[in-house]
Amino acid sequence: MFDYQMHSRILVWMETAAEELRRSHQRDLKIEEKKNAADLVTEMDKATETFFVQKIREHYPEHQIIGEEGINDDPVTDVSGTVWVIDPIDGTLNFVKQKKNFGIMLAIFEDGLPKAGYIYDVMNHDLYYGIVGVGVFRNHQILEPFKIQAISEALIVGNIGMFATNRGNSLALLTQSLGARAYGAAALEIISVLKGEAAVYYSCGLQPWDFAAGWALCEALGFKATTPDNQTLNLLKRCPVVFGNPLVHAEALQLLKETKEIGEINENS
Amino acid sequence: MFDYQMHSRILVWMETAAEELRRSHQRDLKIEEKKNAADLVTEMDKATETFFVQKIREHYPEHQIIGEEGINDDPVTDVSGTVWVIDPIDGTLNFVKQKKNFGIMLAIFEDGLPKAGYIYDVMNHDLYYGIVGVGVFRNHQILEPFKIQAISEALIVGNIGMFATNRGNSLALLTQSLGARAYGAAALEIISVLKGEAAVYYSCGLQPWDFAAGWALCEALGFKATTPDNQTLNLLKRCPVVFGNPLVHAEALQLLKETKEIGEINENS
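Structure tokens for the assembled complex are given below, as produced in the milestone run.
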């Protein structure tokens, strides 16, 4: 039985965190580089994750927490019990350079399996959540799964660096599709798959905080979320991921397996 | 002296057309393929262009009109006098598949030179216009040009097919930047350059209706809009285009000229 009290708390925390992020655009932010100039962390990434960690510690001290910024200093080494996974700002580069096109992602797992996922498209005031066994909601309204029948009749989403180097045989997907879109935030790209704006989301390597909420939302919508080898995702490590409805997910896995000559790439791609 | 009566009329026509496009999402649309399955035209592309052509004919019968859908049956072979350039729906594939991320673009030229440009981000209710010699406005508020100093500190925008095939040496730009974003509509990508969310918009081949409004808006903002060879754009033919502020535009032209080994492509690109 899903814990609706916990769910209600999460909704309030997400709203509070989103409002703080919107307000932070009014002032100059402290920004640091992580691995390189394109991999940024701001004071708001840290403050947002700290906020969630404190709330979880207060109400659910026995739960485990995985967060992008590592605010929780109790590393998770097994996924038994309840595990929270937090990405305080997905798309930090967009947050800094565009002041839009970023998301908050949060997910709840029980013994390694997804129970609920939350993605907040902050600047559009769009909150998506999925409860496994119940459904997916956009701003509390049920989202009907839109059944795309084939990749050839649809757009796909992923990042440009991946396509530019054909990483993970990604051009096999691109050439089969009507074209790709790249928003610079997994959060927004996953939303576009849930809404049926794109058939498939593909990435060659995502951290658990990047895929956990999407995995739970896919599960709740009856979509598939696996590695390209059709393996179950693993909360404890970086994984390549394919998200989509069962039909296009199967088609994507097949396409990614085939290494053939890449066809012509449409100019509108 | 700019014709503000004409400008006011255009604002009303853009609002009317945008409202019709939003309303059209409520019903099934007739959709046809042009060159291929990714190159669509809907009844709304045609209806919107027809609407503008009729209005222009009514008020300015002596003006020339270039439109994507060729509704005006009087082909333009020289650019003397006043020429209107219309893209009734830029991003038709998004319009069909996403019901968002598309724009209306319109521009006014005098003897081949831009006088005013209009881009309507329809679903976000954001109307941008630029009057050469006056400035650029977003929903009637002046837009201050945001001076990006170098491509290395910024995002760029363009289409994924171009980067995936390194068309026009585009990877030289991508690797120098913090990453690229691709929205599937020149209209939205040009807006992101005007707003300073991205440094440079690059395309290896745009039709006049795809670049005319962006050219006029760049001119009005003090930005540069040329071919990669620094040639003036030509309303009568397909051109490769580079848009950006003078600093990053010059840097982009230099980068696109150099054919060197492509550096590492960042995973966040």
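Chain B touches chain A at residues 36-39, 93-94, 97-101, 152-155, 159-166, 171, 174, 178-184, 192, 197-198, 205, 265-269 (CB under 8 Å). Residues 151-257 of chain B form a domain with the D-Maltodextrin-Binding Protein; domain 2 fold (CATH 3.40.190.80). Further analysis is deferred to the final report.
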